[in-house]
Amino acid sequence: MTGKAWHETLLDSAGAASALAAALVQRKNVKQTLQYVVLGLHVVLMAAAAPPLSALQARPDARIENRMLRQASSQEARGELDGAEATLFELLALQPGSSAAVFALERVYRRGDRLGDLLPVLDEFLERDASMGRVWGLKVGVLVELDSLAALEGVVRDWIEAEPGSPDPYLTGAEAFLGAFGAVRATGLLEEGTAALGESPQLLVELGDMYVAAGRLDDAAESWARALGRDRARSGAVFRRVEDLGDERGAAATRIVGALGREPTNVTRLEAGAELALREDLEDDAMTLAADALTRLEDREARGFLNGFARKAEDNGRDRSALWAYARLREMTEDPAEARSTDERLADAALVAGDTAVALAALRRITESHRVGSEARRAAWTAELRIQVGSPEVEGAAEALAAFREEFPESPDLDALSATLASRLLGRGMREEAMAVLSGIEGPGAALERAFLLLEGGAFPEGIAALQASLPELEPSDATEILELTLALSELTPPGGMLAAEVAIARHRGHAEDGVFAVQERIDAVPAQDRPAILAQGARAADQAGLAGAAVQFRRRIVAEYPEAREFAEAALRLARAVAAEPGGRNEAVRILEALIVSRPDSPVVPGARRELRRIQEGGSR
Fold it and tell me: Confidence class of residue 112 from pLDDT cuts 50, 70 and 90?
């Protein structure tokens, strides 16, 4: 900077200080007027004494600005608003381009209930630098707050003229117009902005908001559709706005998706439309748009697009779309490792979508991709068989399991797989096939299935022995139930044993309700000493089948008719819990529990009965 420029800068600052002093004179603020007169003289003397220092920086000194802003902030915090104002005016005199000083003054004036005094400061600042959008925005906000609506439109027009390529005047102005003049004026300003600046996504999104405010939902959808695909960062904003539409959400989404699929369109717009369709449960539209996008992409880009589409489909719970994407992706994949990975995702998606056939085909390809006899092949084949043995095609599952057993005769998974398949075969009346599947298989699952097969065939001694043999390797909860069944079958008469076995078999095969009906129809036809155990079996089957009334009926009979039976304690506790949940049943539940505690003080269920009694008496819940 030349000496002359330095002098001119200082004199400009002195002039600014003098102007501020004159403004304060008009407000009759004598103290601050003197401060700025002194400041102006000081600056003039600096200008007179200043040598031509070309090395001086032209930019404002940030250290001075920060120091004075901190000083003003401290003064404001102490309630010294006049002092804070003086400090900020001093900063503006030294550095007229300090927008931070202007915003700090806004806080001081607001606190002092003098917000109107900020307008001359804003005018002077913008006269020096009309490109400072934040300050224009502040002025618009102040005018709205002061209800100076007559000046509002002129200020917005001045701002547009000062920054003709910026969307900010239109955006901020529209927001101000909405509150001041209504949606029609606000919409008009944004329409003017889109005409002047072109397809600005930011303006289009806000224009859609204004259309919604004006009740023009179709126009809002069209505006948002124009915004989508031009700026990915704006997509989320549009999606959220559609979600917030309430009852109009579906219609708006359908209109936007349709607009994005119409020509002329491009991949970005199709991608945005597909994602919105996934979000709004328009799966057919989502797949249509995605398929159109694929025709416009090269191989590598298409695979990336499909991967992204599949993840979005999964995130939104759109199972059919995810399955479609992975199937298309698998068709395009040639690399073996990538193909295997895609098949894994395809199988998962197919299972979620309920398409077992597609899942099994993908799992079969995974299995065949591994070396024969390898651990990876065994693990993959096991995953395949777990699904296959539960599928309707049990005959094919038996053949597949036999092939697996031949290749991996020592696999620890053979027991569970064989037991599951045998149970399904038995459910279809294929007894001999089930026995063949279990032949030679060792393990708790196979042992248990053999036991139920023997019981079903009337071979009670052998069936009971097989149940006992399975106990050591069963899970504790399963072992307890099988032990109770074993004891009951060992003690029952042949007619009672047949009924109890029928109930147990029905439960084991997932038809517990059949066991409940069998007990209801035939319980009184078996000897009286057999009934408590069978009623207990029937109550458990009713619990499993969700037949609460039948469970209460069976347990009530045990408690009322067989107080000396081994099954009494558990039946009483469970009956009390069920009765307590019924309207007006609390007193009866208390009587049942008190009788249980008195009559069976040493029973393992008594601690639980005491807790249940306290809960009921206190009116609480478990």
Answer: very high
Q: In whole angstroms, what separates CA 456 from the centre of its chain?
A: 49
| pLDDT reported for residue 610 | 92
Three-state DSSP state, 620? coil
**Using DSSP, how many helices (H) and how many strands (E) does the chain show?**
34, 0
Instruction: Give the Cβ contact number of residue 198 at 10 Å.
Output: 9
Q: Which residues contact 53 (CB under 8 A, 6 or more apart)?
A: 1, 3, 6
**Three-class SS state of 214:** coil
Angle (deg, nearest 10), helices 118-128 and 3-26? 160
CA distances (Å), origin 415, targets 377, 405, 441: 18, 10, 6
* Helix, strand, coil % over all residues of the chain, rounded to 5: 80, 0, 20
Distance separating alpha carbons of residues 528 and 257, to the nearest angstrom = 71
Burial level of 265, CB count in 10 A (0-12/13-18/19+)?
Answer: middle
**First and final CA of the chain: distance in angstroms?**
84
Rounded distance between C-alpha atoms, residue 202 and residue 190, angstroms: 10
What's the burial of 306, exposed, middle or buried (CB within 10 Å: 0-12/13-18/19+)?
buried
Question: Phi and psi of 546, rounded to 5°?
Answer: 75, 25
Q: For residues 362 and 357, what is the distance between their CA atoms, to the nearest angstrom?
A: 9
Residue ranges per domain, the chain? 492-562, 567-622
Which residues have C-beta within 8 Å of that of residue 62, sequence separation ≥ 6? none
**How is residue 492 annotated by DSSP?**
S
pLDDT (average), residues 552-576: 93
Q: Helices 548-561 and 512-522 sit at what angle, rounded to 10 degrees?
A: 40
- Judged by DSSP in three states, 199 sits in coil
**What pTM did the predictor assign?**
0.65
Instruction: Report CA-CA distances (Å) from 297 to 159, 271, 305, 309, 324.
Output: 43, 12, 9, 14, 17
Band of pLDDT at residue 6, cut at 50, 70 and 90: very low
CA atoms within 13 A on the CB side of 412: 2
Q: Which two tokens stand for residue 4?
A: 């002359």
- Whether 127 and 119 have beta carbons less than 8 Å apart is answered as no
DSSP secondary structure string for all residues of 303-321: HHHHHHHHHHHHHTT-HHH
Listing DSSP states for 363-423 in one string gives: HHHHHHTSPTT-HHHHHHHHHHHHHHTTSS-HHHHHHHHHHHHHH-TT-TTHHHHHHHHHH
Q: Are 156 and 173 in contact (CB under 8 A)?
A: yes
- One-letter amino acid at 142 equals V
What is the rounded CA–CA span in Å between residue 190 and residue 193? 5
Tens of pLDDT along 467-488? 887 787 777 777 888 888 888 8
Give yes or no for a cis peptide into 336 (omega within 30° of 0). Answer: no
**CA–CA separation, 239 and 255 (whole Å):** 13
Nearest C-alpha neighbor of 203 from the set 215, 195, 193 = 193
Q: Which pair of tokens denotes residue 142? A: 């102040």
Reading the block at residue 224, the tokens are 């948002």
Pick the closest to residue 353 from 325, 378, 318, 326 (CA basis). Answer: 318
- Tokens 């079903």: give the residue: 456
Best CA proximity match to 321, nearest among 280, 360, 357: 280
* Dist. CA 161–CA 166, nearest whole Å: 10
